[in-house]
Design goal:
There is one protein chain. By secondary structure, this protein is an alpha/beta fold. The chain has a single domain, classed as SGNH hydrolase (Rossmann fold). The protein contains eight helices and six strands; from the N terminus they run αββααβαβααβαβα. Strands 1-3-2-4-5-6 form a six-stranded mixed beta sheet, sandwiched between helices. The protein starts with 10 loop residues before the first helix and ends with a helix.
Length: 216
């Protein structure tokens, strides 16, 4: 999640990365999918420290394929991203993929940096409005952060997601690391990112939430 956990790239390396790997396609069968789900997230969805093909998004796509659910996942998540980064990238992604659904998993890096709650809420609301304007259904992922800045800030931060979900009648999905973060054997050495063993559990938890909310 936090950008300072990543190895810095030179400006030339960063540009090359952005050009060669703008987005990660989870499924190669784009023409077979009736609908597209765009995932706009940070390292928790990008698969920080996870080998290619072993991210929770990969397992979820396999589950969808096995169930013959025609939904293609497009993982547009980038490690270290904030809500502001998401705002910068979203217009291009919406124009390129025309997704029917967008899963917003952002805000953790904002919260870990202690950014203004008003700033975070405003950015998330702009993300939601952009998706709705593009006629995409929004799935908002609740984000929970450790109490680095005190319980008051942490609770108010978490409430943002509930308030926005209620205001726009959105499906609020539970935090990806529910029942994961408190188990050290499921976390990487940094104590922030889930390890390979946790990815299938995250996928199963999200599958349950999506089916319970009748997203498909």
């Amino acid at each position: 999640m936090p950008a300072n956990k990543l190895k810095p790239l030179s400006i030339f390396g960063l540009i090359a990365l952005m050009i060669t790997l703008p987005y990660k396609y989870v499924s190669a069968s784009e023409t077979d999918a009736n609908k597209t789900l765009l995932i706009l997230g940070d390292s928790l969805s990008a698969g920080y420290g996870i080998a290619q093909g072993s991210n929770w998004t990969d397992f979820l796509q396999k589950k969808l394929d096995d169930k013959n659910i025609k939904l293609q996942l497009i993982n547009a998540s980038i490690s270290g991203d904030t809500t502001a980064n998401g705002l910068n990238r979203l217009p291009r992604a919406l124009k390129q993929f025309h997704p029917e659904l967008v899963l917003i998993e952002l805000g953790a890096n904002d919260g870990l940096r202690g950014l203004s709650l008003r700033h975070i809420k405003n950015n998330l609301e702009l993300l939601i409005k952009s998706c709705l304007t593009a006629e995409a259904t929004v799935l908002l992922m609740e984000i929970i952060i450790p109490p680095n800045y005190g319980k008051k800030y942490t609770r108010a931060f978490q409430q943002i997601y509930h308030d926005l979900a209620e205001k726009y009648s959105l499906t609020l999905l539970p935090f990806l690391l529910n029942n994961i973060a408190t188990h050290s054997e499921l976390m990487q050495a940094d104590g922030i990112h889930p390890n390979k063993k946790a990815q299938i559990k995250i996928s199963e938890g999200l599958w349950q939430s999506l089916t319970e909310n009748k997203v498909f």
